[in-house]
Design goal:
With about 1250 residues, the protein is α/β, with parallel strands linked by helices. It has 28 helices and 24 strands. InterPro entries: P-loop_NTPase, RecF/RecN/SMC_N, SMC, Smc1_ABC, SMC_hinge, SMC_hinge_sf. Pfam families: SMC_hinge (PF06470), SMC_N (PF02463).
């Protein structure tokens, strides 16, 4: 018998490699207990409904082949045990075993067992480490990391959607070239760094060689320069000694003149002192008066406070009196109305009683008349006894004959009587309703009167409230404005006082400072081109820069800025004429200002370095030029170290200053901040002190005024209290009004309407009743006519006998009289009843109580008025007393004011004497100042000469036995600042005066000149010689005097650089070799994989598409290093033009992705290939193509296991494994079926 198709395929596979035979599961996920799934054919399909456990089988295969827990859709390993999802695991462990059949037929069992949250790996039942387990799998071409045996659900779509870069990363993972990526990046970075270092060292070497050549040239130039410089030093020394010699002679002469003038000034100062003592005594007396005035002001303030305190009470009492008076008037009106109402009420009662008596008398008269009539007519028709008996017999006979008519008539009479009773009742009800309506009308009128009074009271209250609110609003706005302004003033005062405190400057307006200020004002007035002092027209942008700016500006801080040189000369001439001490001028058109070096603004290291000119604000902007001249390119730095670094260690030397005032000059001179530098820096704040003090005084005066306005708060609270009381009373009055309108008037009107409706209803019922009575009367008359006919027949003979026309004539006469009598009596009764009801109502109205109530109210209000008047009078008297007391205090204050004015006059006279004396002193002081200025000028000239000698590095000769010049220079340097104070300058001049210069080295003819012009001429000649030599030196480019040291340093640097270059070059070469080795390994690994997949993908795509016209290709964008960039995947579907992957349909993308999957599997084939629902996006045509390809691939390459839901696909498999669900204890249990399809493939059965 021929073997089956499946057996043939299995035999063919066994010739090449092994296969997966069984999967054994025990309590794994939805597989309860131990279940064996298999055997697996060459092409096996796993089918079953959704939720049956197919994916759990896929997870089981992944799990046993080493998959990580996070890819198995659980968080912990023990969640894989059956029942864990519902919290009832069936066991503490679970396991999955893959039975693999080797090519030689031997079975190898790979197991993974779960114990709690750990797993154990076993091979053929023996526990092994995970790396041993992985190595055993790799022996059969199953790689745990690469997962070359498994395609999860959705992986095909994921591959189809990858971009070119992601596709390149996927190839790196498959080829394992990614394992070399880190080493590749490190070696490449190292190589590039070393190559850059080598290039840098080469360039550095070239530069040092050029420096060496330049240094040799500089050595020769320096020798020539030193010789010429020595001759210049001799000429300079001679010039300085000449000028110092004649400067010393002038200083001695000026000192003698200065001494004489100081003695004269001292005498004048003593006399001024006596005048000042007299002024102090007067000022003390004036101060006492001022204090007394202040005390009186406090008393006045207290009186005003007491008046202000009583005034609200007075207003309150006045308001209450006015209110009570108005209320009293209203109460009197109400009393008058109540009395009128009571009088009317009594009159109405009297009228009703009179009417009642009248009706009673009429009733008595009528009764007497009826009695008399009865007596007169009683015997006219009196029958005899026999006739009466006959009458009764006939009456009985008539009754027998008319019994049925009598019954009808009785019924009609009964109905008529009922209607008559109803009519009478309705009539009485009508009378009652009319009486009630009248009472309600009276009540309504009274309520309307009361409502009118309430409305009048509300209107008067509203007017009073409006007036009070207007007053309250005005006072409140005044108080609020005062309060707000007080807060603003206090804030401004605090700021001003704080600013004054920070300045810490006491304004002692010395005569010299006043004169300087007066000078500026005079110059501005006389010469329009004068702008002012530089200090006054600029301001540091922040206080932190004040010390540094003060240091840099130095002597220019008080310089006078003007528009032109001409204006400056005119000012100087004016000052000479007025004998005013010299000032420094900065004419804007004469200043030679060097441009600002913009590169200095770009300094970022160290931080916060600024040009001094940039941290000063100036106004007007026209003085910017003078400020630039004074500051130059000076820089301000945060610290001393930063300033030193910027000055001397950043290329060209710069002038810098630190925030604390240490100045670094380009010449190398460093001057630290002096002790009084901060005090001098406060002069920036002094500019604002006058303004601040004036502002403080103005604010204090305004504060006093605002406090007076704020004291009206007490009055405001009183008015608010009154408004509140009025509002409360008005609220209750409004409620009373609303109650009267809603509850009384509305209710009264509603009741009247109800009574009116009831009256209309009663009248309507009366009409109906009257109509009914008329109808019944007609019926009664008809029945009576019938009875009368019978009665006339029966009584005919009897009537003839008694002489009447009919028996009714006899009966009617007797009955009519009785009925008339009854009607009349009823009329009298009704009238009396009506009057009696009205009397009862009127007597029930107690109008007298209302009169009594209003009389009591009027009396109470009258008493309250008297009380308020007394209280008002009392408060008014107290306020008048306080006013009188205030007037008395003000009178005393006037006397003190008069005395103060007298003292002011005396003080004025003393001041005039003091001013006169001050002028005398100023005149002497001016002469003294001229001598001082002259001395100061000469000493300054000497100082300048010594400084110039120091700056030019000249060694001035000293007398034998004196200290060396460098020691004296050291003392001078310690005492100097870049911008020293006057005290510091005096100390410096004193030190310089003690310099024992030896003028014997100066030629004798030069020391014997007597004429000042001759001295000046000789000095100019000597200066011209020096200038000539300087020009000669200037034409020679300044050589580097330290060129020899520079050459040695350059040669040493050259040796070090050459050694460093060689070392770097060798290391770069080794790094490049390492990089090339790693790059080659990575390239080979990547390209081996890429070439294999690229070669296989086109035939695989053609096989999948079942069309030789289909095309698929893979192209790297970087041919040299393809793993660095992208891999392009291009496909041409059968019958279509070339399209990008994004433009393909879902099925076409899936076919392309499958082609790439199988090409990758062919590069790194595993013995079996597990695919999960790869046909999800395919239609039936493509499913057939894929299924045919997989059958061919399985027969030739590897065992295929596919999970599928589509019959068109799984019907092509060799065998089916069916998974179906079952439920046990609310937990899913997967059951397994298997079915061999190979025999149907052979026979063609379905």
């Amino acid at each position: 018998m021929c073997p089956s198709y499946n057996e043939c395929l299995i035999r063919k596979m066994e010739e090449n490699c092994g296969r997966l035979k069984f999967i054994e599961l025990e309590n794994y996920k939805s597989y309860k207990g131990k279940q064996v799934i298999g055997p697996f054919s060459v092409f096996t399909a796993i089918i079953g409904p959704n939720g049956s456990g197919k994916s759990n089988l896929m997870d089981a295969i992944s799990f046993v082949l080493g998959e990580n827990t996070r890819h198995l859709r659980v968080r912990r390993l023990n969640d894989l045990i059956h029942g864990s999802v519902v919290g009832r695991p069936v066991s503490k462990s679970a396991s999955v075993t893959a039975v693999y059949e080797m090519p030689d037929g031997e079975e190898k069992r790979f197991s993974r067992v779960i114990h709690g949250n750990t797993s154990e790996y076993r091979i053929n039942g023996v526990s092994v480490r995970v790396d041993e387990y992985a190595a055993a799998l790799e022996q059969i071409h199953i790689f745990m990391k690469v997962k070359n045996f498994l395609v999860f659900q959705g992986a095909v779509e994921s591959i189809a959607m990858k971009n070119a870069r992601e596709r390149c990363q996927m190839f790196e993972e498959i080829s394992k070239s990614a394992e070399l990526k880190e080493e590749y990046d490190m070696s490449k970075t190292e190589m590039q760094k070393l190559e850059e270092n080598a290039s840098f060292n080469l360039n550095k070497k070239k530069g040092i060689v050029a420096e060496r050549k330049e240094a040799k040239i500089e050595i020769d130039e320096a020798e020539r320069y030193k010789k010429l410089q020595s001759e210049l030093t001799k000429k300079r020394l001679e010039l300085h000694l000449f000028r110092l010699y004649y400067n010393d002679l002038e200083i001695r002469h000026v000192r003698e003149e200065l001494k004489q003038r100081e003695e004269a000034v001292a005498a004048e100062h003593e006399q001024r002192q006596l005048i000042e003592e007299e002024m102090k005594e007067k000022r003390r007396e004036l101060g006492k008066i001022n204090r007394d005035q202040s005390s009186l002001e406090q008393e006045i303030k207290k009186c005003e406070q007491r008046i202000g305190k009583r005034k609200p009470e007075f207003i309150k009492v006045s308001q209450l009196l006015r209110h009570v008076t108005e209320k009293h008037k209203e109460s009197k009106k109400s009393l008058e109305n109540a009395r009128q109402l009571h009088s009317t009420h009594l009159q109405e009662i009297d009228q009703l009683e009179a009417e009642y008596e009248k009706i009673s008398n009429l009733q008595k008269d009528y009764e007497q008349q009826q009695t008399k009539k009865s007596l007169e007519q009683g015997r006219d028709l009196e029958l005899e006894e026999t006739q009466l008996t006959e009458y009764h017999r006939l009456k009985q006979k008539v009754a027998e004959r008319t019994s049925h008519l009598s019954a009808v008539l009785d019924n009609l009479n009964r109905e008529y009587n009922e209607q008559k009773d109803l009519y009478d009742a309705l009539s009485r009800r009508k009378n009652e309703i009319e009486s009630s309506l009248k009472r309600k009308e009276t009540e309504l009128n009274e309520n309307k009167k009361r409502l009118h009074k309430l409305v009048e009271y509300i209107e008067s209250s509203n007017r009073a409230i409006t007036e009070q609110r207007e007053t309250e609003k005005a006072i409140r706005e005044e108080v609020e404005q005062a309060t707000k302004r007080i807060d603003e003033i206090n804030a401004e005062l605090e700021t001003v006082v704080c600013q004054l405190g920070e300045a810490k400057v006491e304004r002692h307006e010395s005569s010299r400072a006043a004169k300087k200020q007066e000078l500026i004002e005079n110059l501005k007035r006389l010469f329009p081109g004068v702008h002012g002092r530089l200090l006054e027209m600029c301001q540091p942008s922040h206080r932190r820069y004040q010390v540094a700016i003060t240091k840099v500006l130095g002597k220019y801080m008080d310089a006078i800025v003007c528009d032109s040189e001409k204006t400056a000369k005119e000012c100087i001439q004016y000052m000479k004429d007025q004998r005013i001490e010299p000032e420094t001028f900065l004419p804007l058109d004469f200043l030679d200002v060097k441009p600002i070096d913009e590169k200095l603004r770009e300094i970022s290291d160290p931080p916060n370095v600024h040009l001094v000119i940039d941290v000063i604000q100036c106004d007007p902007i026209i003085v910017k030029k003078a400020l630039t001249f004074a500051c130059g390119n000076a820089l301000v730095c945060e610290t001393v170290d930063h300033a030193r670094h910027v000055a001397y260690q950043m290329g060209d030397r710069k002038k810098t200053v630190s925030l604390e005032g240490t100045l670094f000059q380009r010449s190398g001179v460093i001057s630290g901040g002096a002790s009084d530098l901060k005090a001098r820096a406060r002069r920036w704040d002094e500019k604002q002190i006058s303004t601040l003090m004036s502002k403080r005084d103005a604010l204090q005066n305004e504060l006093k005024e605002q406090l007076k306005r704020k004291r009206k708060e007490a009055e405001l609270r009183t008015i608010q209290s009154q408004i509140k009381g009025l509002d409360t009373r008005l609220k209750y009055t409004l409620k009373d009004k609303d109650s009267t309108e809603e509850k009384l008037l509305s209710t009264n009107e509603e009741e009247m309407n109800q009574i009116g409706r009831e009256l209309e209803e009663v009248e309507e019922n009366l009409g109906r009743c009257q109509t009914k009575m008329q109808e019944l009367q007609i019926s009664v008359n008809a029945e009576k006519a019938k009875m009368d006919t019978v009665e006339d027949t029966v009584f005919h003979d009897f009537c003839v006998q008694i002489g009447v026309e009919n028996i009714r004539q006899y009966e009617d006469r007797e009955l009519r009289v009785a009925r008339e009598r009854d009607r009349k009596r009823l009329e009298f009764t009704n009238q009396l009843q009506r009057i009696n009801n009205q009397l009862e109502y009127e007597r029930s109205r107690d109008t007298e109580a209302s009169v009594k109530r209003w009389e009591d109210a009027v009396a109470m209000e009258r008493a309250e008025m008297e009380k308020c008047k007394k209280q008002e009078k009392k408060i008014k008297e107290e306020m008048e007393q306080e006013e009188n007391k205030k007037a008395e205090i003000e009178s005393r204050g006037g006397e003190l004011k008069y005395r103060a004015e007298l003292l002011d006059g005396e003080l004025g006279e003393i001041r005039r004497r003091l001013v006169t004396k001050q002028r005398d002193i100023q005149k002497l002081q001016k002469d003294l100042n001229q001598s001082e200025a002259k001395l100061e000028t000469r000493r300054a000239e000497r100082h300048s000469l010594l400084q110039a000698a120091k700056m030019e590095d000249l060694e001035l000769p000293l007398k034998p036995g004196s200290s060396p010049l460098h020691e004296l220079n050291s003392q001078l340097t310690d005492s100097e600042n870049a911008d020293p104070t006057s005290e510091e300058m005096a100390h410096i001049y004193e030190l310089e005066s003690r310099l024992p210069l030896d003028y014997k080295q100066l030629d004798k003819p030069l020391r014997q000149l007597t004429d000042e012009k001759e001295v000046s001429k000789r000095a100019d000649e000597m200066q011209n010689q020096v200038d000539s030599m300087l020009n000669s030196l200037a034409r020679i480019q300044a050589p580097n005097l330290r060129a020899g040291d520079k050459l040695g340093n350059v040669e040493e640097r050259l040796r070090c650089t050459e050694a460093e270059f060689e070392d770097t070059r060798r290391r770069a070469k080794r790094a490049k070799a390492r990089f090339e080795r790693v790059r080659r390994l990575r390239y080979n690994a990547f390209m081996n994989c890429f070439n294999s997949i690229a070669d296989n993908i086109d035939p695989i795509y053609k096989s999948l598409a079942r069309n030789p016209g289909a095309q698929a290709s893979l192209l790297p964008t970087n041919a040299e290093e393809p793993y660095l960039e992208e891999i392009q995947f291009q496909c041409v579907a059968p019958g279509k033009r070339f399209q990008q992957m994004d433009s393909l349909s879902g099925g076409e993308k899936t076919i392309a992705a499958l082609a790439l999957l199988f090409a990758m599997h062919r590069y790194n084939p595993s013995p079996f290939f597990v695919l999960d629902e790869i046909d999800a996006a395919l239609d039936n045509t493509n499913i057939g193509k894929v299924a045919s390809f997989i059958r061919e691939y399985a027969s030739a390459r590897a065992q295929i296991i596919v999970i599928s839901l589509k019959e068109e696909f799984y019907s092509r498999a060799d065998s089916l494994i069916g998974i179906y669900p079952d439920i046990e204890n609310n937990c899913l249990v997967s059951r397994v079926l298997s079915f061999d399809l190979s025999k149907y493939i052979d026979t063609g059965e379905q």
